Structure formats: C-alpha cells, structure tokens
Amino acid sequence: MTALATDMREAAPAAEVRRSLGSRIAEKLNGGLVRVFLVLVGLFWLVPTIGLLISSLRSPDDMSASGWWTVFTKPSQLTFDSYRKLLENGDITHSLLNTVLITVPATVLVVVIGSLAGYAFAWMEFPGRDWWFLGVVSLLVVPVQVALIPIAELFGRIGLFGTIFGVVLFHTGFGLPFAVFLLRNFFAEIPRELLEAARLDGAGELRLFARVVMPLGGPAIASLGIFQFLWVWNDMLVALVFTKSGTQPITVALQTQVRQFGNNIDVLAPGAFISMVIPLAVFFAFQRQFVSGVMAGAVK
C-alpha cells in the first residue's frame, strides 16, 4: 500500500503538468489562431466566386490571353461591357425571369403547405395520423430520377409539360416530404401547455397556427425556405426534362450557351456569376434565422 501511494504521488505532478499543457494549448486554440484559420478557410472557399467575378469583369481577349489573377497587376482590364452585353441577350434575361417565376412559387408553396401539414401531424388528432405521416416520410427515399419520365408523360397528357407551372408542381411535390418531416418534428417540441392556454382563450386551430405556432417556428421555417430556394434555383436536371425554349431557367440557358463557348464567353461569365450570387445573397440575408433553426434542432 505504501509503494502504491508513493507511485500515485509521483504520477500526480506529471498528470498536472500534462493537464496544464493541454489547458494552455486549448487557450491558444480558442484565441486568435482559430480565428485566423477560419478566415483563411473562408477566403479559400471564396476563391472560385472571386475568380468568377473578376472574369465577368474582363474582356474575352483578356480572358483568352491570361488568367483572372493578372487583374491585380493590371486593373485596367476591368470593364462592365460583359454585363451590358448580358442585359442585351434576350435569352439570358428571359431565363433569369423564368428562374424567379419557378423558384419563388415553389419555395412559398412548400413552406406554406409544409407548415400546415406539419402542424396537423404534430397537434391535430385525426384517423390514421401516424400512418399518414409514415407514408409522407417514406416518400423521402424516392429518387427524383425515378419519377422524371412517368411525370413527364403525365404532364404531357394534361398539357403541363414544358410550362413553368408544371416545373413548379414537380418541385413542390418533391419538396413537401422533407418539409413536412422537418416542420412536424420542430412543431412537436412546442410546449403543450402553451397551446392549451391559447385554446382556453378561444383561439381556433387556424388562429393558433398563425399566432402561436408560426412565430415560434420561424427559425425552422426560414431554414426550410433557404434549403428549398437553393435546391430549386440551382436545379438543372428537372429543368432540362420539363422545360422548353421559352420556359428554360438560367441554369439551362447557360448550358445551351456552352455549346457555343467560343462566341459567348463574355455572356457566360457574368451570367454564371449572377446565377451564383443571388442564392448567396438570399442565404446571407437569412443567415441568422438559418443558424437559429439549425441550433434549435440540435438542442432539441
């Protein structure tokens, strides 16, 4: 016993030294070193975007002659002529409008219908509620590629193929299972006592949903809206199948320009940057709500 006690006393200072060394390292990592590392990672992540922006501000001759980084030594290369030509390109501007007409309704419909369905599955009693919810969740495993041809044939028979409304319906249908699953789980965490108190004050289901559930579910709804907006805006597969020349979004319009890359490089670069910067602007505009929704889901 004496020998064991002696060994423990000798090991204690070494362990204390190791802990103090680890504490010092942790303090350094929690300071400026981590911040510098995160800034470098962020700048590295932004390099393609910065390169695309600079390329969109250079002439086709300059882009063919040298890389975009040469602008830092020759800033005279910068010009807005490419954006002027982009605005004069009717196909690109019309496709950008089509993208807005597809993305905004598809996002709003998914958020509204998903919120109503999520509240119903979370707090309303009706026959087969759990089985219906299980059926909705099971749709999450259905790949988009499997449904492209059957739904294209269906839309062709009812006159929706090649229309913006048909693309909106497709995105809405495939966005709803995830929306219902996400919002139902979030709404289910709302305290029952809060809802019961609102019912005692005479609030009906619709008023309860609008005045209590929606404000509390704001972060989750904002997160869903951002996800849906990004998915639909950046989609190309569905747009290639379901759109025609007059209803193509910006992703398909840019892809058609690639076929004539040598003649349209001055249109591709600014068009691609605009297609990229709008989703980024939406994300940063709702960044606080997005982070709040993610953190709330993590805590719960």
What's the short version?
The chain is 81% helix and 0% strand. The chain has helices at residues 2-56, 60-65, 81-88, 90-123, 129-138, 144-158, 164-187, 192-200, 205-216, 218-233, 237-242, 250-258, 261-285, 287-299.
How are the SSEs placed, and which strands pair?
Blueprint: H1 2-56, H2 60-65, H3 81-88, H4 90-123, H5 129-138, H6 144-158, H7 164-187, H8 192-200, H9 205-216, H10 218-233, H11 237-242, H12 250-258, H13 261-285, H14 287-299
Helix pairs in contact: 1-13, 3-13, 4-7, 4-10, 4-12, 5-7, 7-10, 8-9, 10-13, 10-14, 12-13
Account of the protein in words:
By secondary structure, this protein is an all-alpha fold. Helix content is 81%, strand content 0%. It is built from 14 helices and no strands. Helix 3 (81-88) crosses helix 13 and helix 4 (90-123) runs parallel beside helix 7. It starts with a helix and ends with a helix. The model is unreliable at 14-18 and 296-300 (pLDDT under 50).
